[in-house]
Write a structure and sequence with these properties.
The strands form 3 sheets. Strands 1, 2, 3, 4, 5, 11, 16 and 17 form an 8-stranded mixed β-sheet that branches. This protein has a 5-stranded mixed β-sheet with strand order 8-7-9-6-10. Helices cover about 40% and strands about 25% of the residues. The chain is of the alpha/beta class. The termini are far apart. α1 crosses α3. The chain has 4 domains: about 45 residues; about 120 residues, Periplasmic binding protein-like II (D-Maltodextrin-Binding Protein, domain 2, 3-Layer(aba) Sandwich), CATH 3.40.190.10; about 80 residues, D-Maltodextrin-Binding Protein, domain 2 (3-Layer(aba) Sandwich), CATH 3.40.190.10; about 80 residues, ACT domain (Alpha-Beta Plaits, 2-Layer Sandwich), CATH 3.30.70. β16 and β17 form a beta hairpin. It binds prephenic acid (PRE). The site of prephenic acid (PRE) has 11 residues, from α1, α2 and α3. Prephenic acid binds next to α1, α2 and α3.
């Protein structure tokens, strides 16, 4: 036996030994998690605690000697936490399907593979499924760094009593997918309106002859392109290639390379407990001069930073608007009780959509980076 073969045998024996220890430790962790699950079920508490998960990940990252890269540590723990949640109680996650949409892939990368992911044909169905408690959680796209808000998602918060539990940012890289690799033969390009808009420059330059047709999702577009064959293409995640038997005719076709979508994890009940980083609010203002300014001044006086303020038309009431606001602070804390009361008195209607931790930035393939 050569020296290197002997060393290899020694190393593998040590790895086996460490794996045994890891197995024991993972089982002990699982058993403790089950106990937490029992306590939660006795007090009707929610299984998914994103702030605690962020705390676990950040603490380990700070303690890590660094041989294992941060991204790997986070990816491994994503699955440990996913399994831990499942041991407490299997969780169904509704998402805008079918399989392979950006929402699905972002949800998998954030929540891990031990969740029961359940596709919904429309965003409306995701909200309905969560609000009617047919799913424990839902994943929805909220806004894109190039195209702005997904108006439908904002509007659906008005229709359904669902709450925000977590957010995540996912890098979006689009591909043109078709059964046939010849760009000149493309007559129709299908995709979700957001994806079509994010690639509009590329489409104009590279397939000017093609008609663009919106679909409910990028994966639905891929299925359509596959059904129609030659002459049809779809825009979506390159991974749709395997699911729908298509070719990736062009990669990275979004008009700007740094293309990110912010997704939200929603649930049927509000979150409670430990301190979170930000709060989302939905409100309407009285129809009088300075109504919005009074709200903004109140937050400014408290030293609270706004990270988003967007108005949407109030359906059925022409030229009236509803505001969606993100505040960089956990307004559910007791110290903000008076601020919330004051805010509510300044609004016509006001709903706290949730307080939650600042989300990680996901780069695909399970490698993640936490935002600062
Ligand atoms: O601390 C909890 O509340 C737990 O349920 C434990 C645990 C974990 O495995 O660390 C599992 C699920 C939660 O989302 C957060 C953390």
């Amino acid at each position: 036996m050569s020296a290197s073969t002997q060393r290899l045998t020694e190393i593998r024996t040590q790895i086996d030994d460490l794996d045994e220890q890891l197995l024991g430790l993972l089982n002990r962790r699982a058993s403790l998690s089950r106990e937490v699950g029992q306590l939660k079920s006795d007090s009707l508490d929610i299984v998914f605690k994103p702030f605690r998960e962020k705390e676990v990940l950040n603490r380990l990252n700070a303690l890590s000697p660094g041989i294992l890269p941060e991204d790997h540590l986070r990816a491994i723990y994503r699955e440990i936490l996913s399994s831990s949640r499942r041991l407490q109680q299997p969780q169904t996650v509704a998402y805008l399907g079918p399989e392979g949409t950006f929402t699905h892939l972002a949800g998998l990368e954030y929540l891990g593979r031990s969740m029961d992911f359940s596709p919904c044909p429309t965003l409306h169905d995701v909200f309905l499924t969560v609000a009617s408690r047919k799913a424990d959680l839902g994943v929805i796209p909220l806004e894109n760094s190039l195209q702005g808000s997904v108006g439908q998602s904002l509007d659906l918060f008005l229709q359904y009593n669902v709450y925000i539990h977590a957010e995540l940012f996912s890098r979006i890289s689009h591909a043109l997918l078709a059964t046939n690799a010849d760009l000149a033969s493309v007559r129709t390009v299908y995709s979700h309106p957001q994806a079509l808009a994010q690639c509009s420059g590329w489409l104009r330059t590279n397939v000017p002859q093609a008609v663009v047709v919106p679909t409910e999702s990028t994966a639905a577009a891929a299925a359509q392109a596959e059904r129609e064959g030659k002459g049809s293409a779809a825009i979506g995640h390159p991974r749709l290639v395997e699911r729908y038997g298509l070719k990736a005719v062009a990669l990275d076709i979004q008009d700007l390379p740094d293309n990110w979508t912010r997704f939200l994890v929603i649930g049927p009940t509000p979150t409670v407990g430990s301190s979170r980083d930000k709060t989302s609010l939905l409100f309407t203002t009285p129809d009088r001069p300075g109504a919005l300014a009074a709200i903004l001044n109140l937050l400014a006086d408290q030293g609270l930073n706004l990270t988003k303020l967007e108005s949407r038309p109030l359906k059925g009431e022409k030229w009236k608007y509803v505001f969606f606001m993100d505040v960089e602070c956990d307004l559910s804390q007791e110290q903000y009780e008076n601020t919330i009361k004051h805010l509510t008195s300044l609004c016509h209607t006001m709903r706290v959509l949730g307080s939650y931790p600042t989300g990680p930035h996901l780069y695909g393939a399970g490698i993640t980076q936490e935002s600062s």
